[in-house]
Amino acid sequence: MPSPPSSLPGRVAFVGAGPGAADLLTLRAIDRLRAADVIVHDSLVPDRVLDEVNPAAERIQVDRDQDQRPSPGTATGRLLARLVLEGRTVVRLKGGDPTVFARLTEELEPLRQAGVAVEFVPGITAALAAAAAAAVPLTSRDSASSVTLVTGREADGKADGIDFRPLADLPGTLAVYMGVEQVARWSGELLAAGLPADTPVTIVSRCSWPDQRIGGSTLGDCVRDFEAHGWRSPAIVLVGAKVPPAFGPLQGQFVLATRPTGQEGELAAAIRAAGGECINVPLVRIADPPSWRPLDEAISRADTYDWIVFASGNGVRGFMRRLAGLGLDGRALGTARLAAIGPATRRQLEASGYRCDLVPQTFSSEGLVAALAAQTSRGRYLLVRADRGRDVVRRELETHGHHVDEAVAYESLSLESLDSDTLAGLDATSVAWLTLTSPSVADAAVRLFGPRLRSWKIATISPLTSAALARHGLQPAAEAVEATATGLVDAIVRHGPAGVRLSEESAEAANLPPTSRG
Ligand code: SAH
Q1: From ligand 1's centre to the CA of 117, what distance in Å?
Q2: Nearest CA-CA partner of 280 in 495, 128, 429
Q3: What ligand 1 atom has the least distance to the C-alpha of 179?
Q4: If I label 177, which of 28, 102, 164, 283 is the partner at 20 to 30 A Cα–Cα?
C-alpha cells in the first residue's frame, strides 16, 4: 500500500523516532524525515539517526531550554506554527511514539489556533522496545491480560503523582516510563497494595542506543538495586512481566561489532539470532581512493580479462559505482568471469545484478588462489581490492604464470580516536565479546580501546586476524572456522558462557596503550 504523500504544504508531521536506533524507524518516518527541511526534535532522538536520514535539514532541539529546564509544550507548538507559516516543510520528531508521554496536547493547541493541520506517524514506543530488548513478553494468556503504560513521575505542578495502588489489582504488566527517580514512591505503593515482593522487575535503560543496559530485580529489591547499580533515565521499568528462560545461547550478552557504519547488518543479525545484543562501534571508515585513475583504466579494458576478482563487498561497491559513473554497464565486462572471496562479497555482486562464477571453499586469499589456479592456465586477472591488504593473490597468481593487474576501489581508514560518548557508553555496558573482522581492525582495536581489551573476550574472523592480535601480545578466546559473520558468531557460541578472560599477564604483555578511562 502506498503511504500518503510526504509533504503537504501547511502541515506538521508529528513523527515517532522509535527508541533510538535508526533501524527502528518506520519507512514512513524515514520518508517524512527525508522530505523535511526543518526537524524539531527532542533529546531522545540521537544525532546519528538524523545524520543518517537527513543530514541537510535544519535541526532544532526543543525539550530543554538553555538552563536545562523542560521547555513548555506550548512554546514548541508556537515555534512549529511559525515555521509552517513561513512555508517550511516541518517534522516534529519525538522519541518513541508521538502520542505517548509526549506533551502532545500542549503542542497541538497553538497549531489548532493557527489553523495548521497535523499528521501523525507512529513510532515504536519505549515500553515495546524495552520488552523486545529484554525478551520479556508483555502479555501472556495465563497471567498477564493487560499492559499499562504509566508515568512514574507526574507533570510538574501536580503534587504527588498518580496513585499506583489501584494498578496492583490489574492482571498484567506495568510499563513505567520516567520511573527511576521516584521508584521508592511507586514501588512502595504497589507493595502496600498487595503486590508480592518477588514480582519480577526488568529495567532497560537507553534502549537500542549503543550503551543500552538491561537489568533484572524484584519489586521488593528494586529501590536498593537501582541505587546500587546506578540506573539512570531514560529507562523503562517493566513490573510483572515474566522473564522467560533464556533462549538463544548468547542471551543477555553484549557483543561488540567493529564494522564500518552501515555494514554491521549481517553480523548484528547473526548475533541477534543467537540471542545476543549487538553494539557496533566502527573503527575504520571506508573512503574513496586518492585517485580513481587505475580503476577507471582497468574498467575501460575490463573485457580483456579472463577473471575479475573481488576481495570484498566494498570492492564490488566501488567498482560498480565507477562503472556506472563512466556511463558503462555489464556489457563492458565482455566475457570476463567474476570471482568473490566469500559469500558476503558474492551477495554484493548479486545485489548489483551480476552472477558470481566462483567462490572458493575456504574464504581467504589462499582459498581464492587455490580455486582460481584450478581454472585457467595463463589467464589475465584483474584484482579489485582495498588500498591496504595482502599481496598473496597477486603473487601466487603471477608465480603460476598469470598476468595480474590490480586496481584500488576503496580505502579503509582507521579512525584517529573514538568520541567520548561512545567510550562512556561502552564503559557503562558489560561487553562480553569483542569481534574483529580483519587484521587492520585488530590493530585499530588495540589502539582505540586500550586496556578495555583486558575485560573483553575477543573473537576473530580468521587466523590472519588472530595473528595481527598476537603481534600486540593478545590472544583471541575464539576464532571463526569459516570467515563469515555466522562463522564468527558460531565460534563465540562454541566457546560457551564460562569464558576465560584475557589473563592479566597477557594484558600486561600486550602493553596496552593508556586510555582516559577513569
Ligand atoms: N514518547 C516517548 C516517551 C517520552 S517520555 C515514547 O513513546 O517512548 C520519556 C521517557 O520515555 C523516559 O524517561 C523513559 O522512561 C522512556 N524512554 C524513552 N526512550 C527510551 C529509551 N531509548 N530507553 C528507555 N526508556 C526510554
Answers
A1: 26
A2: 429
A3: 15
A4: 28
Distance in Å, CA 272 to ligand 1 centroid: 23
pLDDT tens string 335-379: 999 999 999 999 999 999 999 999 999 888 889 888 888 776 789
- Per residue in 448-464, pLDDT (tens digit) is 999 999 889 999 999 99
Which amino acid would we find at residue 414? S
For residue 28, give the DSSP letter. Answer: H
Question: How many angstroms separate the alpha carbon of residue 155 from the centre of ligand 1?
Answer: 15
Residue where a domain stops, chosen among 108, 124, 140: 124
Separation of 118 CA from ligand 1 center, angstroms?
Answer: 22
In this structure, the answer to whether residues 197 and 279 fall within a common structural domain is no
**For 235-260, how does the pLDDT look when each residue is reduced to its tens digit (9 = 90+)?**
999 999 877 665 678 877 889 999 99
User: pLDDT per residue over 183-197, tens digit each?
Assistant: 999 999 999 999 999
Residues 407 and 356 in one domain: yes
Question: Are 113 and 190 in the same domain?
Answer: no
Nearest residue CA, atom 5 of ligand 1? 101
In a domain, 203, yes or no: yes
- Total structural domains within the chain: 4
C-alpha cell of 302? 575490463
Query: 383 is in which domain, residue-wise?
Result: 287-413
All cell numbers assigned to 126:
519505549
**pLDDT > 90: what percent of the chain?**
63
Which of 78, 107, 124 marks a domain boundary?
124
For ligand 1, what atom is nearest to the CA of residue 237?
Answer: 15
Report which secondary-structure segment, H or E, holds 320: helix 313-325
